[in-house]
Amino acid sequence: MYEFLRGSVVHTERETITLEVNNIGYLIYCANPFVFDKKGQEIIIYTYQYVREDVLRLYGFASRKERGLFELLLQVSGIGPKGALAILAAGAPAQVMQAIEEENDKFLVKFPGVGKKTARQMILDLKGKLQDIIGDSAGSSLDLKDEPINSMEEDELEEALEALRALGYGEKEIAKVKPKLKKENLSADEYVRKALQWMLA
Predict the structure, then answer these.
(1) Which ranges does the record mark as transmembrane (predicted)?
(2) How far apart are alpha carbons 140 and 134 in whole angstroms?
């Protein structure tokens, strides 16, 4: 298994990035691909290789802790890679850990693909096992900016909305946060994080 890849992002989609490492392009699935969209900069992405009969994919993470949480979530019956990425995309693993430790299934069912049964299974399987993985890796709050949106921000917003759809959020949920997002002046990454904060509130 690859521990990490070091290279430059040459392409970003709503679910994936293409990381160029020594003239080889790796297609990597991410919770929020826009986090890694640092033009021309060399970055490190911690990876997880997912292998099934008909699937071979690389998943990428900003830290070992994030990858560790992803691996634990995959062990829960009813949660696959897409569901695990949707949980990680919120950027607040400490909140997820707290919800599991406090058996707060009402918070957990806010994630796409997580019903009451899966939320209870998460609590059963993961309670007491997350502290070593998460540590102090809490989600950071974003600065609010009250500036009108321009065409560049509109592109960023559209990319963010596509990313939310890829994570499994429906048009109804997206429509609730879109008017608020239009008042912000953020990058695609920040739009995704902000939308998820509001959806999970």
Answers:
(1) none
(2) 14
Q: Which of 19, 43, 61 is the last residue of a domain?
A: 61
Residue-wise pLDDT tens digits, 19-53? 999 999 999 999 989 888 777 789 999 999 999 88
Instruction: Yes or no: say if 107 and 196 are a contact pair by the CB < 8 Å rule.
Output: no
Label residue 54 left, alpha or beta by phi (over 0 means left) and psi (-120 to 50 means alpha).
alpha
pTM of the model: 0.69
**Closest by alpha carbon to 49, among 5, 7, 12, 91?**
5
CA distance 117 to 33: 29
Among 101, 134, 167, the domain boundary falls at 134
- Is 46 in a helix, a strand, or coil? strand
Short-list 142, 129, 186, 183, CA closest to 163:
186
Which structural domain range is residue 18 located in?
Answer: 4-61
